[in-house]
Specification:
The chain is built from 15 helices and 8 strands. By secondary structure, it is α+β, with helices and mostly antiparallel strands. The strands form 3 sheets. It has a 4-stranded mixed β-sheet with strand order 3-8-7-6, covered by helices on one side. A two-stranded antiparallel ribbon has the order 1-2.
Length: 410
Amino acid sequence: MALERYGLKCEMGHKEVGGMKAQIDENGRMTHVCEQIEIDWRFADALQACDNEIFVRTIVREVFRGNGLEVSFKAKPMIGLAGNGEHTHIGMVAITKDGKMANLFAAAQPKEDFMSVVGYGSIMGLLKNYEVINPFVSATNDSLNRLKPGFEAPVCIVTSLGHTPAIPSRNRTILAGLIRDLENPMATRFELRACNPYTNTYLVLAAIYSAMLDGITASIDKSTKECVAEISKNAGEDGFYLEKDRAYRSEDDVFEDYTDEERTHLFGAPPATVWENMQGFETYPEKLKVITAGGALRPQIIDAFRDGALLRWKTELVSRIIPENREIVRKAKEIKSAYVTDQDSYNWNKINGLRTYLAKDSIDEKSLFTLLINALNEKDYATASGLQVEMYDKVEELKALYDAYAKNMI
């Protein structure tokens, strides 16, 4: 209701699938409710849409506060539960001199073609150049924690169009999907599913529209038949625009129907850390030229964004993530019991070895935590990135081992 009063024209507001069961006290009253809520609001031009996002976040926060509740926009506030996404919808419209609007993505014959040549070129430009768009989309530890298989959060550079033009796709496992309404051509658009509420949408849209223009330029003299063949090509096949060794379209469940190795082979390996993601600017200079060609993004803007993201990454690791993991190590203490089996001794030896490896320094050998902090302070970010991934793996291993160890105690 508050958003309506500000003219944001909410189209939908409902409970989503995330959250956890409510907690109830001895009197049957609910003490804690953790829910995931979805709000959709009406489209606008690119700049106004970015402004509206900030308005919505501010208004929602104040409404919750006014009712004595807390709301979080963090991408992954709780590990193990679905996080906060922000599905950014992208379209392109031409306005004629008489004021009429035409959706440039819409197919002339929607039951025969998925979309127009401009539409095909746009989604191909987005996907081909996503390695230099992704740093703007996911620039924090939190955002990358959300993008894990199993939570309907995309991890692969791939799209879904639908099995046939007559049946619109609702594949929720892909990065950017085609949204269509056969009765309403103006509804044709792309949904980028990787964003989160703290994604800088101003920079994301600047990069996306620049990349789409590159794809349009490459496709504009092609037929829709040639374009659908290009985006549907198999890895290893030559094309007129897309990279030879990659596939870009799947109508299957990306998480369930592919192994990790198959996903990486077909769609590329997703970045595991902020450092890896920011390296996209260095690794793909030809793609960086694409998103800066129109002048919407300048090298100074990109450099400032990258430096800020890396500073936040380093600060959060040193000040929050490593201390939190250190507490997990400290709490994994030996359990004293009158009845200890060989299984208990074996588990504890493995646990204590992990604890030492993670957090205990000696004169000659430094713990993983210390090595990670030292690498960050020395700006050896490549080493720090690898150590961060190892830290996550080792901490998860420790938690699983300690859980099994504690459950075996009687």
